[in-house]
Amino acid sequence: MTAANKGFYVQSIDTEYRLEPAYHLPEIVALEQKIQSKSSKKLKHYIKSVASGATPSVQEETKYYTDNINGIPFLRVQNLQPNGSLYLDDLKYINLDTHNSYLKRSQVSEGDLLVKITGVGRMAIASVAPAGFVGNTNQHMVVIKTNSLEESTYLANYLNLDIIERLASRRATGGTRPALDYQALKSIPIIENIDFSILNHAYTLKLQKESEAQALLQSIDTYILDQLGITIPEQRNDIEDRMFYVEFDELETARFDPSFYNVNTKNLKNAILSSPFNKSTLKNLLIHSSAGDWGQEFNNDTHTYEECLVIRATEFKNNGNLDLDNNRVKFRYINKDKLKKMDLQPFDLLIEKSGGSIDQPVGRVALITNEILQRNTLAFSNFIQKIRVDGNLVLPEFLFYYLKVMHNVKLTESMQSQTNGIRNLIMGSFYNQHVVLPSIDIQRNIVNHVNMMHSQINALKSEAQSILDDAKAQIEKMILA
Question: Which domain holds residue 19?
Fold first, then answer.
C-alpha cells in the first residue's frame, strides 16, 4: 500500500454493505471499476449449480475413509492449483457409502470447476476436474457445474489471474479465516473472450520443468540406496507369503502384529543388513531425546510461559523438510521449563510419532537447521519426538536422508500401531532399526550430492513458476490496457 492510500475518504452511500477500509482502498476500487467496464457478466451467469461438502470425522476413520484402491478421491484445498489443474499426488480417500450418502451433494465429476472459498492465503484458487474424474470435496471449496469442460477451463484460468484474485479477496469476510459466501463468489465480474493461449503455452513449459524436477526428486532414494549397497526386494503378496509363522523367541516385547514379522518386512531388513558397510541400531547413535508439548493457546504470564511456533506433523513435508512458510502454522504458549527440556538445537531431528492416515504412514522425519531456528522461537508438539545423535558416528543430515528413505520404502510402516484412527510409532521398534554407517567422508559425499540435487530441483521449480508468472503478467497487462 502506498503512503497516499493509507488515508482516504469514502462517500457514505458507498459503505452501505461493507465498512472495512480494505474493501474501499482506492486502488482496489479502481481495479474493480476497470474490470466491470469491460464486461457486465458475473460468475453467476456461468453456474448451473454450486455446492460444497464437509469433512468426515477423522476420529471415525474406518467409518468414512479408505485406501486409494477401494476409495473415492476426497479433495482438499491443497489439491487445488493456480494453474487450473488438480494436484492428485496427495489425496485422501472416502468410501463409496460416504460418497453416495453423507457427501452426495458435493460429488465431483469431469469438467467441474472447483473454487476455494475459505481459509487463509490466496482466495478463489480454481481447478478443473480432469477427464474421467470421480471424486468429492470438503467445505473449504465449492464444486460448480458449468455448461462444458471448456467453460470451466476458461473460468479457472480467469479466476487464477492475480488481479482477479484481488477482487475475490476483496469480497471475503472474516478475520483469521476469510470466507467467500455464495453471493460474494457469484458476484465476481467475468470478462469474456480473453486469449489464454499464452498462458496455456506457459503451463506446458511449466509442467515440463516440474516433471524434470519430480524425476530428479524420485531419483534421490535410488542414489542413496545405491551408494549404501542396498537392493530393495520386490514386494510379495501371494497367499503363501501372507501366511507364516514366527518362533516365540523372535517376538519383540509387546509386538504381536503380523506386519512387523511378515516376509516383506523381513526381506527389507535383510537387504539393509546385507549392505557392505557397518551398521548400528539407531538407539546407539543417540545422545539426547525429548518429547514435545502442545502448550496453551494463551497465557499472559511472561515469566513462566513463552510464545513459540509449535511444530506439528502438519509441517512435515513428504518430499522435503519442514514447511514453516505458510499461514497454517500455530503459535502457542509453552512453559519455559518444558521449553528448556526440549532444547532444540541445530541438526536435531524431529520424528512424527503420532498422526498419519490410512494412506500416510506415521514416522516422517525433519531436520532442524540454523535457518529454521533463527526465524522463530520453536517448540514441537506432543505428537513429535526430538532426537540428537553423536556427530562423530553419524552426520545428522545423512541420518535425515537415510530415515526418509526408510520411510519411503515402507520399513517405518512396520513400526506403527493404530488406535481410534490415529497411527502411533512404536518408538522401541523405531530405535532398534539398523542404520547403515559408511565412513564420515562417504556420508558427507552423499549429503553434498543430495543437497546439490535439491538445489537443482528448486531451480527447476523456480524457473517453472517464473514462466507462469510472466505469462499471467502479459495477460493482465492486456486486460488493464
Answer: 1-37
